[in-house]
Amino acid sequence: MFSQRIQPACLDVVGSVPDGNGVTTTGWGVLGRGADTANILQKTELFQFSKEECSSKYNPNRLLKRGIDHSTQMCYGHRERPTDTCPGDSGGPLLITNKFLCLHSIIGVTSFGSACGIMGTPGVYTRLLTYLPWIESVVWP
């Protein structure tokens, strides 16, 4: 089912994004608080928040007993625009792009956020590299 617009993505084996580089996320989730889900696949560029910024936004609480686990989770958002993943986007990819090779690599999976599209409030993404051995054991047994 591949086409000019539908291509496979690589699974990232490096686990880091060069400082200042944006990542891309896509999804079919709601278009904002109280809005309907998207009829057209949405995409946006996000930037990494530091571990300290992420931890301060997601303090330990009743639902997140230990706060963010930085070995398996990472925070991405936008400081200058109200763009983010929203409910319905969970499970979607967080991608880096090698512009030279025109390839996309998945570095994370959309997990959750405290709000939707709030400038300066990052969403939480599952770090793919942590689960790469398990993924490969299932895909290529």
Secondary-structure blueprint of this entry?
Elements: E1 10-11, E2 23-27, E3 42-48, H1 51-57, E4 73-77, E5 93-98, E6 103-113, E7 123-127, H2 128-139
Parallel strand pairs: 1-6
Antiparallel strand pairs: 2-3, 2-5, 3-4, 4-7, 5-6, 6-7
Defining key terms:
141 residues, alpha+beta, Thrombin, subunit H, 6-stranded antiparallel barrel, 2 helices, globular
Describe this structure in words.
It is a single chain. This protein has a six-stranded antiparallel β-barrel. Helix content is 13%, strand content 29%. It is of the alpha+beta class and 141 residues long. The longest helix is centred in the C-terminal third of the chain and has 12 residues, at 128-139.
Strand content: 25-35%
How many helices? The count is 2
Average pLDDT level: 89
* Total individual domains: 1
Instruction: Give the helix level as a range of percent.
Output: 10-25%
> Can you list the strand order of the major beta sheet?
2-3-4-7-6-5
Radius of gyration: 15 Å
Structural class: alpha+beta
Using the 3D structure, state the CATH architecture. Beta Barrel
SSE string:
EEEHEEEEH
Would you identify the regions where 5 or more consecutive residues have pLDDT less than 50?
Answer: none
Structural shape? globular
Number of strands: 7
The N- and C-terminal alpha carbons lie at a distance of 23 Å
Going by CATH, the homologous superfamily would be Trypsin-like serine proteases
- What's the story with the biggest beta sheet? 6 strands, antiparallel, barrel
**CATH class category:** Mainly Beta
CATH topology: Thrombin, subunit H
